[in-house]
Amino acid sequence: MRRTVSAELHVTAGIGTTEVALQVALARVPGLRVSESLEIRQDGRLLEPAEEPTAHGGRMHLVTLDRAAEQPGEVSVRYDASVEDEAAGAVAEVPTTTADLMAYRRPSRYAQSDELFVTARRELGGRQGLALVHAVGDWVASRVRYVPGSSRVTDGAVATLLQGQGVCRDYAHLVVALLRALDVPARLAAVYAPGLRPMDFHAVAEAWVQGQWYAVDATRMAPRSAMARISTGRDAADTAFLSAYGAGIQMGPQTVTATVDGNLPVESADTAVQMP
Asked: Which residues form the Transglutaminase-like domain (predicted)?
């Protein structure tokens, strides 16, 4: 399957020096062919980012913005890529260590599994394997409404459960927290998601079952088999598409696109899906 994706971001840099970390580029994993371009400009001047590897083939691009008081500090980011499976039906694998699995069992900033231990055991205990994973996805889908703008960037899984609404990252955090509370290693993946409406960066959970990672998207908004991985981590703190340190930035317009050649795959929530 061939996917074509893009992201365009516009920001205004604060006066002084700002370090920016971008995670918009597709992860490089075995079994995928990626063709891409990344262009970052400040006031029309091309900047050269440094690339650093992250988990599961992800890549972070780092750039420093310098702005004097008299300069406008307008910054644009443009990423374009196509990605294609090298062999039909092949699932790429990046090694998962014992340390990874331990980290993905623990509570984290947005996935407070320790606070949801009782709820998870009461509502979802007694199941095993993929049956448990599907049950957690169904449970979250039935209790949370997708409402754009309904959550704050500081909200975690507990807030999502109490409010009963959120956006994709809120769904993913709740799924991850419940799985961890049930002793299943779980993590968050930021992805490009063909078929998503409204189009944006998307977040899904992944659960470790029988020696493999399986995608869980309780929003049911896009086919998992068409998704293209960007970054992977404990929660959104590890996978943010943009982080800024120092003088800071002001976000402007952003545009994300993701398409596939031909028809979108048919999605079934009960199907086990592995993402490259």
From this structure: 160-220
Query: Exposure pattern of 180-205 as b/e (b: 16+ CB <10 Å)?
Result: bbbebbbbbbbbbbbbbeebbbbbbb
Residue matched to tokens 């596939």:
260
Judge whether 247 lies within some domain: no
End-to-end CA distance of the chain: 12
- For the stretch 70-91, pLDDT in tens is 666 799 999 999 999 876 555 5
**Residue 62 and residue 127: Cα distance in Å, rounded?**
43
Whether 167 is covered by a domain: the verdict is yes
CATH classification at residue 182: 3.10.620.30
Number of domains in the chain: 1
Domain holding 164, by residue range, is 98-190+201-229
Q: What is the pLDDT of residues 248-271, one digit of tens each?
A: 899 999 999 999 999 999 999 889
Tell me whether residue 35 is in a domain.
no
